[in-house]
Design brief:
Layout (H helix, E strand, L loop, with lengths): L15 E3 L2 E11 L2 E10 L3 H8 L12 E11 L2 E12 L2 E13 L5 E5 L6 E13 L2 E12 L8 H25 L8
Antiparallel strand pairs: 1-2, 2-3, 3-9, 4-5, 5-6, 6-7, 7-8, 8-9
C-alpha cells in the first residue's frame, strides 16, 4: 500500500482476470536504490468506495495483513493527514519490520497522494499516488509508488527480495481491496 507498505515491483507485466475485478497490469522496476510499482486494475465497485477504503487509515490492516498498526498522527485539513504504519513483511525466511510516516491527502480530482516523511520512516524517499475514474462496469484504479530504503540492502540477493516482497504485498492488497469493496457496507464503518 504506503500508507500501504509502499507497494513497488520490477519487471512484471501481466494481464488476467482476478477475483471479480481485473488486474490489467503490474509493473515493478528498480533504478539504483529506488523501487517503483505501477498497477492498473478494474474493480466492480465505485471509485468512491475504493477511496473510502484506502483512506480508512486506522484500518489499513484490512487491506494488507502485513500492516500490523496504522494510525493518524495529525489532521492538517479534512482531507490531509499524517499517517504512520508499522508492517512486518517476509519473503521466504527473510523478514523485515517497516515503519513509514506519510503525509496523505485526497486531491480535488479524487486522487490520493502520499508523500513519505523520512524522519520516523525506514525509507529516505517515498511517494504513492492512487488515481480513480468510473467506467461502465465499475471503477478503474491506477497506482504508482516509489520508495528508497534507508536501511542496508544486501547487494546480490537484497534487490530481488525487495522486488518479490513488493509484488506479493501488492497483489495481496489489490485482492483484499476488491474483496472489501464488494462486501456489504458495515454499520459505522467503510
Amino acid at each position: 500500500m504506503s500508507v500501504r507498505v509502499s507497494m513497488l515491483i520490477l519487471v512484471l507485466a501481466g494481464v488476467g482476470t482476478v477475483w471479480a475485478g481485473e488486474l490489467l497490469e503490474v509493473g515493478i522496476e528498480r533504478v539504483d536504490r529506488r523501487y517503483a510499482v505501477d498497477i492498473d486494475a478494474r474493480f466492480n465497485t465505485s471509485a468512491e468506495r475504493l477511496r473510502v477504503l484506502l483512506t480508512d487509515y486506522p484500518n489499513l490492516g484490512r487491506i494488507n495483513a502485513s500492516i500490523q498498526h496504522s494510525e493518524v498522527l495529525e489532521t492538517n485539513a479534512p482531507q490531509q493527514h499524517c499517517v504512520r504504519t508499522e508492517a512486518h513483511v517476509c519473503v521466504g525466511f527473510f523478514c523485515k519490520d517497516i515503519v513509514q510516516v506519510q503525509d496523505v491527502g485526497v486531491l480535488a480530482d479524487g486522487t490520493i497522494l502520499a508523500t513519505l516523511r523520512p524522519q520516523g520512516s525506514y525509507f529516505s524517499y517515498g511517494i504513492a499516488r492512487w488515481q480513480f475514474w468510473e467506467e461502465p462496469t465499475g471503477a478503474r484504479m491506477r497506482f504508482h509508488s516509489e520508495i528508497e530504503p534507508a536501511f542496508w540492502v544486501p547487494p546480490i540477493i537484497g534487490p530481488w527480495l525487495i522486488q518479490r516482497a513488493l509484488r506479493a504485498e501488492t497483489l495481496k492488497s489489490v485482492a483484499n481491496l476488491e474483496r472489501l469493496a464488494e462486501a456489504p457496507l458495515e454499520e459505522g464503518g467503510p
